[in-house]
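ok trying again, last paste got cut off:
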Amino acid sequence: MVKAKSHPDQFGFDFAAPQPAREAAALAGLEQRICRAVGTILNSDSRPREILAAEVSVLLDDEVTRPMLDAYSSPARDGHKVPMSRFLALVAVTHRHDVLDRLMREIGAAVLVGEEILTARMGQIDTEMARLAEERKALKARAPLIRRGMQA
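nice, full thing came through this time. structure:
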């Protein structure tokens, strides 16, 4: 399978474990950060916004226009909050999962895309194998020989 090319402006994956938002006001201003994320996505894509709006519309089977995208990217326009479905569709059509990842880290999550999940699974398997090797080592130190009777 051909690997997707990363976006030239893509943020690198941060392997630090994200911390969940738990303190009072930890997510204050999130709407403005989402608007700025939409702006980052729109400004980093070379296609006209009308094309992006059309692709989002097709993906959602719901009309999204350029003025809507423009409004979603403006933190000053309080009345134009970005519906999650439209934000996710915009991420999907622009392949800017890295921008979504930065937002998700605010709630303690991280985004893996497509077959990147296989890399995470390999890490999980390696961790489990190491745990089982330790368990085997501990058992081996304690395990007696199984009784041996006369052999026929």
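cool. Residues 116-142 form the longest helix (27 residues). Residues 30-111 form one domain.
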